[in-house]
Write a structure and sequence with these properties.
65 residues; mainly alpha; flat
Length: 65
């Protein structure tokens, strides 16, 4: 029953989230920066890449042996 409830929850949240995101984009046009809003998948990938790049140590530029 918990799995069924979880599936119903995902369906309802997805079905209600899409019009909500459209409404937020529609009525928030003048409040955001000039750059176009990225989709959720692009934000997720970009955020992951930024987090990884901050945790990986940069290559040393020290030329002293």
């Amino acid at each position: 029953m918990l799995v069924v409830a979880g599936i119903w929850y995902l369906i309802l949240v997805t079905a209600l989230g899409l019009p909500q995101s459209w409404l937020e984009r529609r009525y928030g046009r003048g409040t955001s920066p000039a750059t176009p809003a990225a989709g959720p998948l692009r934000r997720l990938v970009t955020g992951a890449v930024l987090r990884i790049s901050r945790t990986v140590p940069a290559a040393s530029t020290d030329t002293k042996g």
